[in-house]
Amino acid sequence: MSDFDLTLAGTVVLPDLIIENGYVAVRQGKIVHVGEGRAPSAHERHELGNALILPGAIDAQVHSLSQKDQEDFIWSTRSAAAGGVTTIVDMPYDEGNLVCSADAVRRKIAHATAQARVDFALYGTIDPQQGASRIAEQAAAGVAAFKFSTFGTDPVRFPRIPPALLEECFTAVARTGLTAGVHNEDDEMVRAAMATVQAAGITDYRAHGLSRPPLAELLASLQIYETGAATACPAHVVHCSLGRGYDIARAYREQGFDATIECCIHYLTLDEENDVSRLGGKAKINPPIRPRAEVEKLWQHVRAGNVTLVSTDHVSWSEGRKTNADMLANASGVPGLEVMVPLFVKGALERDIPLTWAARLMAENPARHFRIDHAKGALRSGKDADITVLFPRPGRYDAAASGHNVVGWSPYNGIELPWTVGLTYLRGQQVFDGTSVGAPGFGQFVRPELGA
Description:
By secondary structure, the protein is an alpha/beta fold. The chain is built from 14 helices and 19 strands.
């Protein structure tokens, strides 16, 4: 009788090594062995040829509930499974339920557990009126990190945290052993720039970039890292669109501070002059999509090891909230869960960047960052058997045609993807077979493990 439940044979992509004639062996939902050569026998055995076998991706930034009665976990985790994402980390800015207390965390866990097709972890935040008083209780309830913002998108759902309160929050987060992640745009500078744009009567695609100048992003990043340095709190910039931002983060790390930085897949894929000009509101994201020259700088930072994580900042706004002719009137954010992994693989291969970075930036590093690496993030003995398999099946992406998205639009529609996610396994169980996704309720809440 076979000793393994599942073996997958193909090109195994690890954070530091690619095994071209490799295999992964699974028993009882865990990785047991990764090797080279002929795969051992198993109850279920797949010879996948030259398919890429990667650790299941961890998307560090998902907004499943930003628009009430729109996406929810039933759809976000469907997109995730179809995209080879086996764990999502969901943001706390839910419409009608800011996740800023232990009770709110528990409610969200119960709500998501009934719907989730893949595993999930959660961010917590604060109500500025309550200060940092409820940070400890959220950590005890199981959040994996905390999220704040230097810019106020909405006074209730997505509030600005002023500098003194941010310092108080960082001090409280430091005691939990978790990380403080911050949206990095200087509120005063953005509002002044927005007023200038509106006074000039600029309403087309240019309005967004002009209203959020690069300096607004960089000043906020400096505030975040200095606050982390002053409070001994791990400080994380949750999305950076500028090469200079990665230089700043690296400088703080070289000085001995815990300063991490995240790059969203849209900053590595889309540009202002070609894509934002064409898509208008469907490419409105905060911080903005930058010119192509900046995109290529970001890929150089990937190559140099200056990027900590790659994520989506996924949110599926209904189309009516993304098609206003006045650029600034549109909601900010785009869906991306289904294509993050194939887009990164495409971009890396085009630039001769080793695919080991895919395993590192979308699995190993996020697992460590959120303190869930006791179970997640690697094709390594003892870890959950979360596995993504990509096949060399070129095709143009079409969000509506795939059937795995609550909306039929995507800024990535029409992009030719040379590799396609064909199989996704979660804890050793298949949750995507290339066409169908697993049932709701199989996904589980993942708690961080501190002090290990």
